[in-house]
Write a structure and sequence with these properties.
The chain has helices at about 5-15, 20-40, 40-50, 70-75, 85-95, 110-130, 140-150, 160-165, 175-185, 190. With about 190 residues, the chain is mainly α. It has a single domain, classed as Hypothetical protein af1432, CATH 1.10.3210. Helix 2 crosses helix 6 (about 110-130) and helix 3 (about 40-50) packs across helix 5 (about 85-95). The longest helix has 21 residues, at about 20-40. The protein is globular. It binds fe (ii) ion. Fe (ii) ion binds next to loops. The site of fe (ii) ion (FE2) has 4 residues, from loops.
Amino acid sequence: MITRERCEALIEKYVTTPWLKLHMKESDIIMQAVANRLGEHEEKWGLSGLLHDLDFDYVGKDPARHVVEFDDILKMENLEVGKDIDKDVYHAIKAHYEENPKVPEKRENNLDYALSASENLSGFLVACALVMPDKRIATVTSDTVLRKLKKKEFAKGVRRDLIQDIEKTGISLEEFIDISLDSMKARASELGL
Ligand SMILES: [Fe+2]
């Protein structure tokens, strides 16, 4: 599996939007926490979070090309699926945008469900932090998050159904929120939160 250093170099090369870089990092942090909870490989799950939107700036944020052209980057960088990128990591990255009709992979296993849930929750937790009086994630509680998830007009773009799907891995929604919040609070200064 590709090293973290190489992943960071790829991000430097292909991702220019500051919020997107942060979003990928936050997804990495939450995925590590989820892997730890499930007894899975923390570094590998983290890297799937770190890389999942690698092509988003490259495709000009075009949803029709998103995730499809991840393959182009792999080809240009001589990265092989099954060698440099584990097959299940590749599958989860593709399936995180299965809504794209050009993507054949579907969410079907714990890594797939965890990646989609984590990348959606990471954005949601940032949105929760930004409406706190001090704008700090330290102030956000699990209750705040649960309450705001029920408000459809809050952070409308976040897919609540995909966050809820964490339960397919055996982790309850409440626990998922707890471990994700804790993991992001522990790295708050790095994330500027
Ligand atoms: Fe994402």
